[in-house]
Amino acid sequence: MDSLTFLEKELTGPGKKQIDFKPGDTVKVYTRYKEGDKNRVQQFEGVVTGISGGGINTNFTVRKVSYGVGVERIFPLYSPAIEKIEVVQRTKVKRAKLYYLRGLSTKSSRLKRARETKEMTQGAEPAPQDEDKPQA
Length: 136
Hints:
By secondary structure, the protein is mainly beta. It has a single domain, classed as Roll (SH3 type barrels). Helix content is 7%, strand content 36%. It has 1 helix and 5 strands. The protein has a 5-stranded antiparallel β-sheet, with no helix packed on it. A hairpin with a 6-residue loop joins strand 2 and strand 3. The model has no long low-confidence stretch (mean pLDDT 80).
């Protein structure tokens, strides 16, 4: 077994970092930066516009609009600089690559939220309903 295959199995094996998001989801990516002798963590929040590659070469693109200017950034999934990836909102899209978001304004580029399933709300209890109020 060559060293690249061994490294890929070690990084992508069970219990390791997995993709738990898909295109259209809003994510926060926490990235570690070294400035001089200090380390800091900076977050980049935006919509995942695509996932490319496979195995150890998996990359994902995140797009956000900052001060009216669209900013896209490509992150390697298995980079040691990425501290964590947090899913903020899940949405429902019909495409694997969301390049059409580039041409839309901020307000028109909003995506439909996905329905919450039992998997997404792990352990969350449903809100109690008042019996006094009539059903609409």
